[in-house]
Fold this sequence. Notes:
The chain contains 5 helices and no strands. The protein has one domain (4-130). Helix content is 86%, strand content 0%. The chain is mainly alpha-helical. 27% of the residues are buried. Helix 1 (4-34) packs antiparallel against helix 2 (39-62), helix 2 (39-62) packs across helix 3 (71-99) and helix 3 runs antiparallel to helix 5 (107-130).
Amino acid sequence: MIARPVVVQFIKFGIVGGIGFLVDVGILKLCMTFLGMGLYDGRVVSFIAAATTTWFCNRVFTFRGQGGGAVHAQWARFVLVSVGGFCFNYGAYAALIATQPLVAAYPILGIAAGSLAGMFFNFFASRHLVFR
Length: 132
């Protein structure tokens, strides 16, 4: 059975992820609208902004008092974990789209499955590699 503190941390991590999603979408929109950036270069900027926001929120809310060392090193580890989570996210999405006709017809199912796969990876990697 999973200990209650881990479940509480996971819920907090999910809340922070929602905030990060909003930052990601908002910054991408700003980059495209006001800076003339495209979907790809704007996404790099929005990803960094969202990763920084979620790192900070997880540092002060989800994993408060955990982790140590230099702040910039912790941030860098978190960004690397986030990239790993993206790989799980996109991998699950792509695999389901390619193999499941229902998911190919309704890609939102693949997005949801990918998001969950990435979230689980990011949570456990953050817990054990970033905020240990």
